[in-house]
Design a protein that fits this description.
Strand content: 15-25%
CATH class of the largest domain: Alpha Beta
Helix content: 25-40%
Bound molecules: 6-O-phosphono-beta-D-glucopyranose
CATH topology of the largest domain: Dihydrodipicolinate Reductase, domain 2
Radius of gyration: 24 Å
């Protein structure tokens, strides 16, 4: 059913995600007049706050987490906010919450950003108190379970009260502008698609490197690890967008249909196709940082780094490895996708009869930078200028598009701005469907099972490095070098 919600109910409203991302995103949308003037935002969490204390919390969060150039007067936005304390494990409290939410004129959008253990009681409380009807849609923040079985359990609980077309599973990477731009790059340009296959692409790399460590998320992260925290969702979504067949239109069903086919075509990963690591003390940007177990305060075999050589078993990608790696406490924060094309079939510039033995040609590379900078670079071979008395020389030169220069406007949006607006408006294109989540877990569970079978424990790497040396070897034994 199509409606623009005029009530937004935020569960976990005092939590970290809300303060860092959701409230700043909502304010940013409000300041650009993107929110319906009637939209009321109701926050709820266990903390016993009143509306005025919640508004203070929101004001402080905006001061702390919004970049200075996006701050302005908060008054109109704060006036939209109200608060109602709720212990979601106690069904009795939902009646008063429903009263506080009232009857929307147009519809209600709910956003659950709570511990997964609260999903079930929350859904039950909503359903029992008239907060799950036709005019209600629900957004779910990750983690949606820790494996296929637990994710099915959560999905079943949600499905008992909401049909799939009113469930919005968030993967905030899909809210990032450059991630959406992948679709434009691939399908709004003629020149890439004919080359986008095993005949012309040698391999693909996807790196999501972070400089941060545990960030105080002890209880969550140690039970998750890099594979489930980053690969199971964000990285597989990036891989699916790179590898999917052209959808017939830019619509939620068509795009998600194509993504899920890729996820289901992922080959089981062999024991020698993954490397795991855990950071020990080191230095980042010249500052000393402690090791993972020191931050944690106890021994742990959780991986903070993982590299995987993945394969997609379909016609398009037969024999093209996708090298994925992600880690905490890497030397720099960078998310990028690198598509390396094959060498030209015959180089006219090489050969013993040419002066100096000829020139070496390198394969073209397309680098899609997602963060911190949004840019697209295509490396092309060019002749080094000169009279060539010693023979022609060739060198790769970049064809560079920096999105920030190409487009005016706030191009550094928070990913949640887009996602919250789509949730309010009811557009599911950038949300993850149940079958995608299940295909993702299916593949991830098999990797974890193989680690357990082979007694894999993470190798130590120094904070500020690119992970264990075995990760370098994983690519180099195929003659591939990670882009650094
Ligand atoms: C989250 C993970 O989903 O994504 C975090 O739980 C990670 O561990 C974060 O730091 C990275 O997001 P971004 O947008 O900063 O790349």
């Amino acid at each position: 059913m199509s409606f623009t919600a005029d009530r937004l109910l935020l569960f976990g409203a005092t939590g970290d995600l809300s303060q860092r991302m959701l409230l700043p995103s909502l304010y940013a949308l409000d300041s650009e007049k993107r929110l319906d003037p009637k939209l009321v935002i109701i926050g709820t969490a266990r903390s016993e706050l009143n509306t005025s204390a919640f508004r203070n919390l929101a004001r402080e969060a905006l001061d702390k987490f919004l970049p200075a150039n996006r701050r302005g007067s908060y008054a109109t936005f704060l006036n939209r906010l109200s608060y109602h304390p709720l212990d979601a494990t106690k069904p009795a409290g939902f009646k008063a919450l429903a009263k506080k939410v009232g009857t929307p004129d147009q519809g209600l959008a709910i956003f659950l950003s709570t511990a997964p253990s609260l999903f079930e009681p929350t859904i039950a409380g909503l359903a029992a108190n008239g907060l799950a009807g036709e005019h209600v849609r629900i957004g779910l923040e990750k983690p949606l379970g820790t494996d296929l079985e637990s994710s099915r359990h959560i999905n079943d609980a949600v499905a008992s009260a909401f049909p799939e077309d009113r469930i919005f599973r968030i993967d905030h990477y899909l809210g990032k502008e450059t991630v959406q731009n992948l679709l434009a790059l691939r399908f709004a340009n003629l020149m890439f698609e004919p080359l986008w296959n095993a005949a012309h692409i040698d391999h693909v790399q996807i790196t999501v490197a972070e400089t941060v460590g545990l960030e105080g998320r002890v209880s969550f992260y140690d039970g998750a690890g890099a594979l489930r925290d980053m690969v199971a969702n964000h990285m597989l979504q990036l891989l699916a967008l790179v590898a999917m067949e052209p959808p017939s239109s830019y619509s939620a069903t068509e795009i998600r249909d194509e993504k899920v086919k890729v996820l289901r075509s992922l080959r089981l990963v062999g024991p020698d196709e993954t490397v795991t690591g855990q950071y020990q003390a080191g230095a980042i940007a010249g500052a000393a940082v402690p090791g993972y177990v020191d931050e944690l305060g106890q021994p742990s075999s959780t991986e903070t780094f993982v590299a995987i050589k993945a394969h997609i078993d379909n016609w398009r990608w037969k024999g093209v490895p996708f090298y994925l790696r992600t880690g905490k406490r890497m030397p720099e924060r960078v998310t990028e996708i690198i598509v390396t094309f094959r060498c030209v079939p015959h180089s006219i510039f090489a050969g013993p009869n040419l002066k100096g033995g000829g020139a070496r040609s390198e394969p073209n590379k397309l680098v899609i930078g997602i963060q911190p900078e949004e840019n697209i670079t295509l490396s092309l071979m060019a002749k080094v200028p000169g009279l060539d008395r010693e023979g022609i020389r060739l060198r790769p030169v970049p064809l560079n598009i920096a999105m920030a220069d190409a487009f005016a406007g706030p191009n550094k949006r928070i990913a949640y701005e887009r996602l919250l607006l789509d949730l309010i408006d009811g557009d599911q294109t950038l949300f993850v469907r149940r079958d995608e989540v299940e295909a993702q877990w299916d593949w991830i569970d098999a990797i974890r099972a193989s680690w357990a079978d082979h007694g894999v424990t993470p190798k130590l790497y120094t904070a500020g490095s690119w992970g264990p040396t075995a990760a370098i070897a994983l690519a180099e034994r195929d003659g591939v070098t990670w882009n650094e």
